[in-house]
Fold this sequence. Notes:
By secondary structure, this protein is an alpha+beta fold.
Amino acid sequence: MGPLTSLILALTTVLCVTLYVVRRLLTPAVPTKGTTNIPGPVVGRRWPVVGHALLLLGVKNMKDLYGTVRRLCHKRDKLLSFYLGSKLTIFVLDANILEAIVSMSHKCQNKEHELYYTFNAFSNGVFSKNGKGWSAMRRPLDRFLHPKNMEHFHGITAEKAEILCTRVGDCCGRGVFDIKHFMDYYMLDITLECLLNVPGTQQIEDTLHFPEMTSLAVYTMFKRIIKIAYKIEWIYSLSPPGRQCNKVKERLRPHLIEMVNNCYKQMELAGRNPSDPDFIPENFIEVAIQNGIIEKKTEEDMLFSFADLMVAGFDTTSVATSSTILFLAMHPEYQERAYQEQIEVMKGSLKAPTREELSRMTFLDMTFNETLRHVSVPAIARTINSQFTIDEYIFPEGASIYVFLNHLFNDPRYWERPKDFYPEHFQPEKVAARPKGAFMPFAFGGRICPGKLFGIQSSKLILSNLLRRYKFSTSLKFEEIIYKYMIMLESDKGYPVEATSRAP
């Protein structure tokens, strides 16, 4: 065998092995059954084995990914089909199409594995699960967050809000500070106390360092989405993001163990046994313990089965509420209008508003919704479990549906001033004239955000308390904001504001 033949054989072997590995990496956990007539990208082509994956070359982070998706969606006003290997992904770009999908959401209830499996590196809880494991944890969560419990939560939220207002008051006259730093701990405290029955004391003493660790964990999980080689567990575990994720878990583990041990002690004192078939959990740590016993989970899996609830409970609401304060600081005319509504509803009182008083703060509702329009979760992904057709477009079983929320929330077809901060978008008559699918910040169907009511109530309460006490300003301009893609869209420059006391 000559040198040339040996070289050709070696190159052929390398090529075959590479194709085999690439095919394995691009083979989805849930295969697509059937084809679709939904059009693909106008530019580029679909190749054997890799599909449209070559169009993603150069994507280094989540911002690059969403920017690429926007370019691919150019000239497609309703739907776009995109193949990663054999996995068919359907991007939803039309509010009426989304509304039709919502009406048959039982056919696409599961979260898309190819996206959400990445979160399992940090936590295997209710927000990334599917099937029986998901429903076993979601049912008690829905019970905890039932509207009848909101009055009890309201008292806890009001107590924590007073602490935040005091901390902001200490910053008056002292220059610029980041409002989100304070908001993180307020939202974390009410999540701990309301849902986990853990004392919410992080505003007073930051013992968990949870907001800091959450940012690191989310960064590492999104890195895994971007780099396809990280789909292989051992490669990810050896990578810098994987090692960083493990460090975060190591720092968090002792605190979770303490929470679980304290929960066991409380159950023992009350004579309650999580192994009892008739046991009814009273908080989400008890749900995790009971589920761990039933599914025979390891201690590690049980510990990190409620960490994602902690993340979801504080992170999204903190981003939304901090953004509202920042945007009002950028728009003094809207801040004044929100303040005057507070005066009208609260009659000069500085007490926390009741739930009935919150319901009358209509401009605050409009302002909060307009904030969500700009900073909501960029996209949600579902897997189709049964084929359906909408407007003659075929959605085959096993395909992924990506609802590109950021696209819909900024589409000039539905929004008068899409690039501006304009609360009038949510005047009742404009909402009524707009397709419901144009604004769904809390998702839809069986996987709708369980904390929607809880999050809105806690956010409006702290906004009301802050706006009655302080006037906010900032040198940052709305058009200068650069967003980074985390769980929500976050300001890359932070949330810098100055506060001035409104007290006479």
